[in-house]
Amino acid sequence: MSDRRDCRSAFERRLDDAVGEEVWQRHVAACDDCRAQTWDLGTLMAPLRDAEAPPVDGARLAALEDRFLAQIRQGEAPGEPATDRPERRRWLTLGAIAAGVLVLVSAAWLARGWITDHNAGKGDDGIAEGMAPPPMKGATPQAPARYLALGVTSTAGRVVHRAADGSASDSMPAGLSPGAELETMEGQSAVVLESSARDLRLQMGPRSRLRRLAGTDRRLRLERGEVMAEVRSKIAGDSLKIHTPHGTVTVRGTQFLVQTRAARTVVTVFRGRVRYRSRVSGDHLVAAGKRLEDDTSAVTVRATRPPSPTPGSDPMAGTMGSGAHGTGGKGHAATCSLKRVRRLIRTGRARAARAAIASCRKAGAHATTVTVLKMLDAQALLALGKVGAAVRAYHRIARHHRDSRLGQNALFTAGQLELSRLGQKKRALATFRRYLRTYPSGRYASEARHLARSLEAGK
Amino acid sequence: MLSTQHRIAASKLVKDVVTRSSDPERDLDLVQRCLSADDQACRELFRRFEPQVRGVLFRVLGPDPDLEDLAQDAMVQLYRGFCRFRGDSSLRTWTDRVCVNAALQHLRKRSRRIQTVPMEGLDMPMTATDSNAEHQAERAALVGRIHQVMDRLTPDKRVAFLMHELEGRTAAEIATASDTPVSTIKSRIWYARQELHRAAAQDPVLRDYLDGQRRGGEK
Lengths: 459, 219
Known about the structure:
The structure holds 2 protein chains of 2 kinds.
Chain A (H helix, E strand, L loop, with lengths): L3 H11 L3 H13 L1 H19 L7 H17 L11 H35 L29 E7 L2 E4 L5 E2 L5 E2 L4 E4 L5 E6 L4 E5 L4 E4 L6 E13 L9 E3 L3 E5 L3 E6 L4 E7 L1 E6 L3 E6 L2 E5 L4 E5 L34 H9 L3 H13 L4 H17 L3 H14 L4 H16 L4 H14 L6 H13 L2
Parallel strand pairs in A: 9-10
Antiparallel strand pairs in A: 1-4, 1-6, 2-3, 2-5, 5-8, 6-7, 7-9, 8-9, 9-12, 10-11, 11-14, 12-13, 13-16, 14-15, 16-17
Helix pairs in contact in A: 1-2, 2-3, 6-7, 6-8, 7-8, 8-9, 9-10, 10-11, 11-12
Chain B lengths: L3 H17 L3 H12 L3 H23 L5 H14 L10 H23 L19 H18 L4 H11 L5 H8 L3 H21 L1 H15 L1
Helix pairs in contact in B: 2-3, 3-4, 3-5, 4-5, 5-7, 5-8, 7-9, 8-9
């Protein structure tokens, strides 16, 4: 009989390639357990393999097709089946509330980014000066590939979509196809567009009209209004180009704002560089912190007001949604570093770590940070050898953060410590049972089940 | 009038054709047309992929009263995800991703809600004149039983195992579809095999079935 580790490694080799399959077949021929198991599972899978989904008759299929079309056209959530499902309704209600809150927050954010600041720095022609860039999602840049669409990731207010054939509708498509146009209205109307590889993000402000030109998603025309562009990775030969009535902006860097009105176009660069080709005076390179104004008769470049982020720095620093995690809020970022606390625990300086945690708490850290600090405090207690106190701390976290992954981790860790460090089998069993009751399909459910069974068997 | 068996054979053939005929250029074109709100393209998308999606969900979830709604939701998700479709993978991979997510989500919800599985088996239209009706009923009950035993697996393990065993996906494909490391998928499939084998050995019906098959094989 083979060692189970050999069985597993042979099986996993099988999942790799054709050579692995041969390795597995040789192993099965030699291992009675694996042979029996493979035969049994193959026999059990045969009826499932043959089973077919209940056939849908033609009329029903046509109805489903129509329903599908209606759903994607209206952009609404899939239809609710006519069954009584209180639980589903409850989740839907919660979802609706969450969505409402999200909409309110987005509206406030948009108002802050596009209206308040806009008004605060307006020039005589209504174009904002030194507008703060809106916060961006922290998506990781992906390898550039073929671009198919500019996906519409969020909208606010009334937005009109005009297809390439000129037909207009208020409902948003999944993406902006070549030739199509988006127009935002007065007030808090705005649209966020993102490329398929998420390395290009555009945010249209109110009273703007943006058309996607033919070809890739990197050719756009801003007829009117303003668009904030963030390019996370450059693609050779396929730079983002935004045409305006007065010139063309070609990206050479990463983050910039283009504003255009009847009389002039203004380009403000926050990070990297852009090239501006004016119809009257040729090419201009605009670096970060500079603002170019083209009023059809002349082009001027000057420093932005208020001072914009310096090249290489994060232009989002200090704006909403950045730097919230990992550092304390309310201006105490310098005094509270989770990294430092972790390092102190790792290097055995648990007392210093606890002192750092206490100072962080006093400093009034962000709610998320406080939760992480609680876990780190429990770890520090453990490092100090105060296992009982650590277990109590983990139980406290589990009670207070029942619905989070942290709570789940804490409860399972408490059970493990009770079993392995304190030798309290009864308590450990109760903890594992509680874990399984609370998180029946949690990430440690199989381990907790196994441990609970072992403890029950050992009674 | 086609018999049930003929219908099953025909739908299998269609499924195989759909699975094999993965033409990236055609896929890309279809996605482009769908994104430009072309109704015909959306209809084509539905006709091409709905049977595939429903089939995968059926085989992974077993008989489920919500199957039709789930397939419908998955199709809408498939469409909505098109703005992120870059064309560097096939639509089949994209469909797998949607199916895996829909199945996982539903299994998690189901495990929270109830711990039972409908045992009526397949909702096949069967008549008294159908000569295979009895055999089919037995088969359906067996399928229901296997899925009931499979409910003991965690959703992650179940989906990884069934996508591999029934849909013939490689560990790498499942990993891509579920945004999980390949090693984790391998591990899930391995543990699912162990747990399922143990569970089947403990289940009297499946044990009898396996014994019967073994005896049949020996004869």
